[in-house]
Amino acid sequence: MGYIVRPFRPSDESFVWAEHLKANQSYMERHMGASVELIRQYFDRYFPLQACYMIESDGGVIGCYCLNDEGDAVKLSRFFLVDFVQGKGLGTKIVEQ
């Protein structure tokens, strides 16, 4: 599967929010009692959107990752891939590059 990586654009926020919610909602509701509204407040306040890079394939967004620059190192802080591309080695390929 071919892909490109590009910087985050404001129009990508709804995709990133949906993937964040899908990945975290069950855990946050069960262990923290967090509602969708509270999860959204956390996302709006702490999610590093400007540090995100979008992954596209065939003209559509299929994932994203965020990098955290800590001065002496750059760390991967978030990584999402849509369900239909998971389990095919794409995530590993992206992380290794």
Structure explained in plain terms:
α1 (13-32) crosses α2. The chain is globular, with a radius of gyration of 14 Å. The chain has helices spanning 13-32, 36-46, 90-96, and strands spanning 4-7, 52-57, 60-69, 74-81. The chain has three helices and four strands.
Question: What characteristics describe this protein?
Answer:
4-stranded antiparallel beta sheet; alpha+beta; 97 residues
Radius of gyration over all CA atoms, rounded? 14 Å
- Please tally the β strands and state the result: 4
What's the rounded overall pLDDT mean? 93
Which structural class matches the secondary elements?
A: alpha+beta
List the helices and strands and how they pair.
Blueprint: E1 4-7, H1 13-32, H2 36-46, E2 52-57, E3 60-69, E4 74-81, H3 90-96
How would you sum up this structure in a few lines?
The protein is an alpha+beta fold.
